[in-house]
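chain below, 130 aa
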Amino acid sequence: MKRIILFDGVCNFCDASVQFIIKRDPANHFLFTSLQSEKGLELTKKYAIPEDVDSLVLIENGKAFTKSSAALRIAKKLDGLWHLFFLFILVPRKIRDGVYNYVAINRYKWFGKKEDACMLPSPEQRKRFI
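prediction:
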């Protein structure tokens, strides 16, 4: 089963992150949907993801991962040396999530926000969105 990444569809940083993942995932491990989409809302309910989660979520093997745990599990599957970031899983989650939260809280200020919620993926990329 494919892993599903839910992302904030109006966040420029999140959009750039999705593009980053797609470029480094030639094996197509991941499918994508925005948190604001119908499918995103359905998955949020199904996996009991708290309503205040507004950044990255990974659904893998029937379980939802958020914050740094999601990011590190995604990095583990990427081509190149990105999988080495998974070693940070050894850092206590409270510390990892503290860093993650700092970036998440400031992402709109640093990277901006879109007026509309959709990027225009290429035809090949469209297959990866649900």
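The mean pLDDT is 87. The two ends are 14 Å apart (CA to CA).
thats it, cya
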